[in-house]
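ok here's the first one, seq then struct tokens
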Amino acid sequence: MKITLKKSLIIALLVACGAIGWIAASGRFDRSENRRPTVSIAVNDSPLERQTKFTSSFSPVVKKVAPSVVNVFTTKTVRNPMPEITPFFDDPFFRRFFGSPFGDNEGRRQPRTFKERSLGSGVIVTKDGYILTNNHVVDGADEIKVARDKDKKQFTAKVVGRDPRTDIAVLKIDAKDLPFITDAAINPGNSGGALVDAEGRLIGLNTAILSRSGGNQGVGFAIPSNLARSVMDQLIEKGRIERGFLGVGIKDLTPELARQFNVPDTTSGALVTQLEDRSAAAEAGVQSGDVIIELNGTPVKDRRNLQLMVGRLSPGDKVSLKVLRDGKEKTFTVALKEMPEQKLVSANNEPGDNESDALNGVAVGDIDSAARSQFNIPDRVKGALITEVDPDSASYEAGLRPGDVIQEIDHKRVTNAAEAVEVSKHVKTKQVLVRFWSRGGSDYVVVDEGKSK
């Protein structure tokens, strides 16, 4: 891999700040109880030597870490709905002379599919083949190949787990005695590469750049290694991420709001704007208008800070929440619940059960403003947002992907996640007609559960 000055600058900046690196050992299976594998991580938290002398070249660091970089090649089938038909194409006279632009005799819109190939980067984090990369690198991929830059050897990779919220994915290849930890500049195609310090210790996973043109303008963003490690551990051991959930709507505490809620100017925190019914915070006694100023004794800086602190905790954890209410401090003990996500069917259904397994492997949620912004969903589109699709499911094979919006199931309209769950329970056939919105248009697919893997 070509090493440029921009890479060296990234490393040099990190040396000045100091960092905590981590080194991975190997994964192992507990076959006695048929559990998922666990990964042992050796953390090196020793500080950088303050007397470190800077040189004009970081080639020794690059040489040390470069062998563990991998290129991640993905292939996925993309459905490209045709634009809405203009009135001219509905006119038989027009079609008689000019034909149909959609390749049939009736002018019906026909979805087209094509293979899309992408390139990203990954970081080998264990000797036996666990690899960290970005979720957006592998999202929706039908096939994933990884190749080491040194020997060009290719491996077929399996997705162990993905976490769209942190943009982290864990891959696994069948290999042994691999090197690990590397560095890569954050350019298009390098998402998922590692950010290292002057000693070659991983401190971040590159994920995005700030760019007006698509090129690198010198400003990049990376996921901290401690967060990446926490997500990786859960994905490998549990196959999913379990996050604590307060069940409150919050916003930043501005000076104007602080005055209205009798909060001192020097106090930071997050203002509670609403509470979900039967949420952890509501059951503990938190109210709208409370200002959350501490979580487990740690000051809350703002809305985002509180979300990150809660998200790193687990469902069932009991936390101490200090709030200001009418200018007076109150402390609540809150038992966190799990961040809600609804499955269309139970994962515990066994073959032969009377319950339908329609759209098995699909998780849905309601469409909020954040989802509309992330997936460019127009306000007019109503339905159940697909948040997760099992790659081995019939729904995935049919083309359903996270970010799609289910509008009908078995000819029955759905406007939210709860309706989608309810309708799916009453489907009696293995072949299910689904109408969904995706990438600017609506389409139909038939999900054949009889072909489930």
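and now the second one, same deal
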Amino acid sequence: MIKVKSRGNETAEQMLRRFKKMCEKEGLTKDIKRIAYYEKPSEKKRRRARTKPRVFKPMGSSSSSSNSSR
């Protein structure tokens, strides 16, 4: 939960601006925008695949080592 306490003689507009920045840092605004519209299951998969870190596998590591020893 995000809480914003007033600092001294801070105006309500300045507090609201700080609140919005905190929400953006937490990722709340991104989640709200994403949930606002229906997302197809295929689009969900695609989005999750984009955010997942990629793991690269070495190509043909077993066959190339046997060829180099000949």
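notes on #2: The two ends are 64 Å apart (CA to CA). The chain has a mean pLDDT of 84.
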